[in-house]
Amino acid sequence: MELLSVNVGRATAVDYTNAPGGLTGIDKRPVGGPVRIAAPGPDGASGVAGDAVCDLRFHGGADRAAYAFAREDLDSWERELGRALVPGSFGENLTTSGLDVNGALIGERWRIGEELVLEVTGGRIPCRTFAGFVEEPGWVRRFNASAAGPGALLRVIVPGEVRAGDPVEIVHRPAHQVTVASLHHAATADRSRLPETLAAAEWMESGLLQLARTYTEKYGE
Predict the structure, then answer these.
(1) Residue pLDDT, tens place only, 143-200
(2) Is the pLDDT of residue 55 over 80?
(3) Which of 78, 114, 161, 207 is the most exposed place for a label (fewest CB within 10 A)?
(4) What residues contact 99, with CB distance under 8 A and at least 6 apart?
(5) Average of per-residue pLDDT across 67-78
(6) Cα–Cα distance between 66 and 37 in angstroms, integer?
(7) For 1-14, what is the mean pLDDT?
(8) How far does Cα 167 stand from its chain's mean position?
(9) Pairing state of beta strands 23-24 and 28-30?
(10) Per residue in 151-168, is it b (16+ CB within 10 Å) or e — as a string?
């Protein structure tokens, strides 16, 4: 398992986002050399040095400090879309190889390189900006329904510098069965499963946790 690339984006004005100022950093490109990843500061932006986060309502912050997507899943989308997808094509900060990103447990920890330790907090919920960037019809529905999976949102446990080619090691798995894929399915396709995801409440990204708790309070287990 390894890190294929580290990708960062600049704030760019576009007409397909409802983010404040009409800006987005979704167009992420691979960068050479080491990149430091640390918990975001009080402004709640990206945890990846040099990476722009423009809509702090839905991106960035401690629970979404970085976003990982598997090269294998980009390959699957390449076949479906009929076009090349380079690392960063889905707005991910980290493009991995050999790592089961969507099968990762919520709260699972990865060491990348010598220092960095990240913790899985959830999966990406696609938005209008993502749909506009990809320019594919029905994108939100297609992405949510795809077997390729949503990719993983990550929290920084130990900061550090990483670069393309660094090894990835799974160093901890919590004692539950809630994966990135199962949480995403519950949040987007079958909300009756949301109460089950509360087994991972201790580690879950705050927006998804609120959704699961609200549903459970309203409808019961």
Answers:
(1) 999 988 999 999 999 999 999 999 999 999 999 999 999 999 999 999 999 999 999 9
(2) yes
(3) 114
(4) 1, 68, 70, 110, 168
(5) 97
(6) 8
(7) 96
(8) 19
(9) unpaired
(10) bbbbbbeeebbbebebeb
